[in-house]
Design goal:
two-stranded parallel ribbon; alpha+beta; 6 helices; about 30% helix; single chain; two-stranded antiparallel ribbon
Length: about 150
């Protein structure tokens, strides 16, 4: 049928109401929403698909656009993604989910933050965390120096 989108959903039409319950919607927003310095929250489709890195290839800034009372849903903010360095063709664009303050945290603290992110968390395997994990493995010269 024209306009029937049920074929692209993982839910059968009869299960759609339970599949998209408040809890599932909340977890999607919790995992993919961004906040600005005023702690306002928003969703941007393309940036929500970008992966995290503790040594990111890009940074993000939210440019505010306000109209109407603060109690209303605001529409029109823009997220600007800017390359942090020259990127090669096909190189993944990543950014730090937690910003600059996350970059100065210890490896274990960064991993703890990633484990608590969104719905279920993740283990950060970016190049920085991979290197720090290997350097801190028992028996390495670096771990002996600690």
């Amino acid at each position: 049928k024209a306009g029937d989108l049920s074929a692209i959903s993982e839910c059968k039409p009869a299960e759609a109401a339970t599949c998209l319950d408040d809890s599932r919607i909340f977890n999607v927003v919790l995992t993919n929403a961004f906040s600005n310095q005023n702690e306002d929250w928003g969703m941007w489709t393309v940036p929500s698909f970008l992966n995290h890195s503790c040594c990111p290839s890009a940074s993000q800034t939210i440019i505010e656009s306000r109209s109407g009372p603060i109690s209303e849903v605001q529409v029109g903010g823009t997220m600007l993604l800017r390359a942090a360095r020259d990127l090669s063709a096909g190189e993944e664009v990543t950014f730090n989910y937690w910003g600059c303050e996350h970059a100065i945290r210890r490896y274990s603290d960064r991993q703890a933050a990633s484990q608590q992110h969104g719905n279920g968390g993740f283990t950060c395997c970016c190049c920085r965390c991979t290197l720090e994990r290997r350097l801190c493995e028992p028996g390495t010269e670096f771990s002996k120096a600690l």
